[in-house]
Specification:
Elements: E1 11-13, E2 16-20, E3 25-36, E4 39-49, E5 54-65, E6 68-78, E7 83-94, E8 131-135, E9 140-142, E10 155-157, E11 162-172, E12 178-186, E13 195-208, E14 211-217, E15 220-223, E16 227-230, E17 235-239, E18 248-253, E19 259-264, E20 266-269, E21 274-282, H1 284-289, E22 301-312, E23 315-323, E24 337-347, E25 350-363, E26 369-381, E27 385-386, E28 392-406, E29 421-441, E30 463-477, E31 482-497, E32 506-520, E33 533-544, E34 547-556, E35 561-572, E36 576-583, E37 588-595, E38 598-601, E39 613-614, E40 617-618
Length: about 625
Amino acid sequence: PPVPRSIDTVEIKADRQEFDDRQQIVTAIGNVIVRFQQSVIDADRAVVNLLTRQVVAEGNVAYRRGQQVVRGDRMEYNLGLNSGAIEQAKGEIFIPTAGSDLAPTLPTDISAGGLLDEPLSDRILSQQPVRGIRATPGANVIIGGRRGQFFTFPQVVGTVNRVRFEAERLDILPDGSRVATNIRLTNDPFSPPEFEIRAQRAVIRQISPTAQELVTTKPRLVFDQAIKIPIFPQRQVFDSRRRSGPCWTFGFDGGDRGGLYAECSLDVFTGGPVQLNVTPQFYIQRAIEKHDNNPFFPDNYGMRASLSADLGSRTKLQGTAQILNFDQFPNLDEEDFRGNLRLRQYVGNHTLTGEYSFRDRLFNGSLGYQSVHSSVGAVLASPVIPLGDSGINVSYQVGYQFINAESDRPDLLPLFRPNNRIDLNRFQASIAVSRGFNLWSGQPLPRTPTQGLRYTARPVVPFVQLALGVRGVTSIYSNGDSQNSLAGSIGIQGQFGHFARRYLDYTAFNVTYTQVARDGLSPYLFDRLVDLRILSFGIVQQVFGGFRVGFQSAINLESSEVISTDYTLEYSHRTYGLILRFNPQRQIGSFTFRISDFNWLGTPEPFSGVRTVEGGVRLSD
């Protein structure tokens, strides 16, 4: 019978082996594979000391532990201590992808201005060409409104789960940390990379089951092998559970923040089930206009904080808080603070959410911004429910809230009052049904850096799609009022071109019309339904290279009033992009730098992109 393999056994396979019985040293030559516990070393030649577990491997060396792969010219490694060093190292860092967040609106609602459906190796050292390149679920191209907003330019959202690197030397420490000298990292599966991070020294270590920390010395961004920009901070966290963007971003908020502002997202702690993120903000325009370029006034600064805690496999606590300025800190006025706390419990395939909110700021169509001073309650939301093979999808939610908010109803307001807020209970139920029809679709270009992946992380599939939808909402208030509505929507959306040529090779569009029948009127302003005939339309057009411009607008056809319009300017490449957005009606905008996320099979080329010549012949692709 076969002898059981001990966990301390060193397994060696090779074309030829020599064994020194006195020193307990094995010399393996040709297609060498050394296995010990979770570590695998592949090389042309290796010397293994069975007593000390020391391995010296040379020639096309590859080391794998779990999903982490490192290749190099020469490696000295101690299997027992899980430590060693690799010369001329290169490899990949992989963080498993995670699920997406829950959408806060009915996912099957296609009403104008709402959410539109989206169209659109065992052998370590295998030298096969790169194949199967795809954008992972963390990098989705989205066309149409997203989560109730009107932004419609294609955008890539999520986290970077796989990066590859090269370094002059990589030291692997017993705790799994890696120390690299003269390192280059990229998310680009092709060489030479479009986008890199370079540093004199880098330390990579695991800080949680889903996150790795990268601490660098003299880091800089390198675009297209030419433009170099120093970066701060020198610490980055790659976390599969985080959905936040890069540290430094710019935004525009004409309401709370006085215009243009900058913010930087910082992780306070991410290990374990609790995650806390703090985002300091600096109000640039306020400092210039109100304080004559003096940045030291406390009302030039604000802060956002977010908390996430996994209380169980199906229970999650989430909270956010905003300090709008520090003028009176720590004795803040209520106008200087916003916050909410949500407890989510999965019940079967439904989600039950208990929530408390303070001073929610909501945009209600033609009525503009409205504030809900306080709200406490619970909402039960369904998943998307397909109706058999009909192609029809349904979603619904029911909820109860006790609300304190603004009202313009004199009969509900006391004669002498400090404000125009009233307290009422509200019961609300809503359902949305939608069906999409694919009218036409084309074929994407091959996933190569000169064709389908020239300017985008995912090859563009040309298509035209028709969508039909119905949404019903009933709201009942404790004073006897009610507001009921039934909305029908029809929309068409699509895209043409492949975004691969330099001029006018991409056009995306959408048009949606919604007609609403309403019975009754809400006593509040924040949820009062006043836009009964809405036309939403938008277009995104490639102008030159990676530059795209676009807009998305929604209009009340009864009053001819523009409800909201977003203008976008984007510079897009396969691995990175710059996106500028502005909405004059909402007085908001943002500037975002995004990094795409890829997955690939096979061994990418060296960063230099130089191919090998043997016998005077360039090796074929």
